[in-house]
């Protein structure tokens, strides 16, 4: 359990062990989706890639949700084919969609379409869809979330965008690994989400989050773009 973490800018929930963390996050997401299905008849959620949330998606798919009333898309994506094993679309398909029968998936990358057209389509899709009920976010050790990488040449433009999605070139940013070209949610897109969840594991990630809150520098810690938004506070689910 964390020994020192406190902030009135986030809702922080610590879990004692990994299995409890997985079950709690999945249950939280299901509750949010079911509430919007009850109110609006449908719900929409945005998922992130990475190994941390995969077991949560597996558990979520087994819960009692009318998946045929749920639209699924991504918080961000590498400039890769949705069939590429390194794409976020592939991870979501393997960990969630194959188990959640009936859920509709809108990838961010469209095969055969150039990057600007994919971004245009993602923004058009967001414009004519329900506001996302929930977005599941991760955070890198560099303080990035979605594909908002500190030091990237397009970061300021993405932070100032009035559209939900933007293209971003993270060439030279270690956290982007060998996939610098990205499509990412912007702060404008994050603001539209009814509930923002941050899924964290390990003491190092908790320290990064604390440093971000102490710094108030969104250029150095883009995770702040998910924190400093109107509406419900970012809900952080953490386990060691």
UniProtKB/TrEMBL annotation:
Which residue intervals define the domain Glucosamine/galactosamine-6-phosphate isomerase in the entry?
18-226
Q: Which enzyme type, at the first EC level?
A: hydrolase
What task does this protein carry out?
Answer: Hydrolysis of 6-phosphogluconolactone to 6-phosphogluconate.
Q: Which reaction does it catalyse?
A: 6-phospho-D-glucono-1,5-lactone + H2O = 6-phospho-D-gluconate + H(+)
Looking up Pfam families in the UniProt record yields: Glucosamine_iso
Q: Where on the tree of life does the source sit, at the highest rank?
A: Bacteria
Enzyme Commission (EC) number: 3.1.1.31
Q: What NCBIfam families does its record include?
A: pgl
**Molecular function terms from GO:** 6-phosphogluconolactonase activity
A GO biological process held by the record: carbohydrate metabolic process
Q: What is this protein called?
A: 6-phosphogluconolactonase
Similarity field: Belongs to the glucosamine/galactosamine-6-phosphate isomerase family. 6-phosphogluconolactonase subfamily.
This protein's gene is called pgl
Q: Which residues form a coiled coil?
A: none
Q: In which pathway does it act?
A: Carbohydrate degradation; pentose phosphate pathway; D-ribulose 5-phosphate from D-glucose 6-phosphate (oxidative stage): step 2/3
Protein's organism: Stenotrophomonas chelatiphaga
Q: Which UniProt key words apply to this protein?
A: Hydrolase
Supply the CDD domains for this chain.
Answer: 6PGL (cd01400)
